Amino acid sequence: MIDSMSQAGLDRLHDAMAARVAKGEFPGMVTLVARGDDVRVDELGTMAFDEKQPMRRDTIFRITSMTKPILATATMMLAEDGLLALDEPVDRLLPELAHRKVLKRIDGPLDDTVPARRPVTVDDLLTFRMGHGLVVEPTFDPPYPIVNAANDQRLVMGYPDPRTPYDPDEWIKRFGALPLMYQPGERWQYNTGSLVLSVLVARAARQSLPELFRTRIFEPLGMKDTGFTIAPEKIDRLPSNYQTNFQTGKLERQTTSGPDVWTKPPPFPSGAAGLVSTIDDYLAFARLLRDGGVHNDKRLLSPDSLRRMTANHLTPEQMTGGGPILGGQGWGYGVAIATAPDEVSSEPGRYGWNGGYGTFWFNDPSRDLIAIAMTQVSDILFNGTTTEFAKLAVNSSGEDKA
């Protein structure tokens, strides 16, 4: 039996987030806590610092890396259909990545390579162990030749904006001309696996990624405001987004992801960071995973696929090597996994992910809990907001399941 949520706990959550709005940490936020069929939504503040338009439940947010769990779900659906296999080399669908070369040293010249010990597999893309991604030591993306080459090619490896100008075929061709940073399976490295997977699943499905997402996930779940573009009549529901300028210490409005960008289809629909969504749309997706892959009595995802998605696939060394991005957590397919009790949950198994423009989600199976917070201020990911929100969301959920 599941007890109802604690109103006192929900009030504490509201007060804590409202205090951050009042201090000017972000102009507004929409939060959601759901347990069973009990859903509580809180709308705080405004869409921008210099505007009076309030944040609303139907506000459309750039969810950036919260796109990744949706991409992983689509991949598992195609695997269930037999259109791809998790253990197969990517070469069949991505011949551009056959016969990989690997740098001898991460900071070495691009032609100082050795052959890859084995091909990259679909599983490597899902678990971010393909041998390419963000470099977190000694700092994010230091100017090594391999990093500079990707930047020179405008492949947009680490950030959603500005967008790459290439279509998927051209993007994978250019990426395929670069060596890998490490041997496949060796390390966890963020982001690139989802970009490559975006091309692979579209080819496997013989559909564009927007069409695949729409037919297999968005329409079945009723996610009417989620996509790679925003209809012109809805564009006023997109908030301004902000990030601190670390030279001045002040929050600044960002200009690379404005309304004009979102009314046009992207050349490269990115399964790494390309979607917008609303809090209720994302709740529908989170519920699909919470409910074992079933929506409205119809199975969309098998229990085995869900188990694979939400199980940790990393070694302890790979978890540690993930640096501040992974924070010592495990990684499944498109989601981080709490592998042990921590400051948020008393039991392991919590899973979810965040978006670099200020969105955050997790499912906690031990409490039948879904929690989502959406702003458009990147700072919430490193100023303690997400940890405070997560703790208070868990505390508001009442007693554990008996």
What are the defining features of this structure?
402 residues; Beta-lactamase; seven-stranded antiparallel β-sheet; two-stranded antiparallel sheet; 13 helices
Fold blueprint:
Blueprint lengths: L6 H16 L5 E8 L2 E8 L15 E2 L5 H13 L20 E3 L9 E3 L6 H5 L18 H8 L15 H9 L15 H14 L3 H13 L20 E4 L4 E4 L5 H4 L13 E2 L1 H12 L3 E2 L2 E2 L3 H7 L6 H6 L1 H4 L3 E2 L4 E2 L13 E5 L3 E6 L4 E6 L10 H11 L7
Antiparallel strand pairs: 1-2, 1-15, 3-8, 4-5, 6-7, 9-10, 11-12, 12-13, 13-14, 14-15
What does this entry show, briefly?
With 402 residues, the protein is of the alpha+beta class.
Write a structural description.
The chain has helices spanning 7-22, 68-80, 122-126, 145-152, 168-176, 192-205, 209-221, 259-262, 279-290, 303-309, 316-321, 323-326, 385-395; strands spanning 28-35, 38-45, 61-62, 101-103, 113-115, 242-245, 250-253, 276-277, 294-295, 298-299, 330-331, 336-337, 351-355, 359-364, 369-374. With 402 residues, the protein is of the alpha+beta class. It folds into two domains: 7-68 and 209-395, DD-peptidase/beta-lactamase superfamily (Beta-lactamase, 3-Layer(aba) Sandwich); 73-205, Beta-lactamase. Helix 1 runs antiparallel to helix 13.
Supply the helix-strand structural class.
alpha+beta
Largest sheet: 7 strands, antiparallel
What's the domain count? 2
Total number of beta strands: 15
The Cα radius of gyration reads: 20 Å
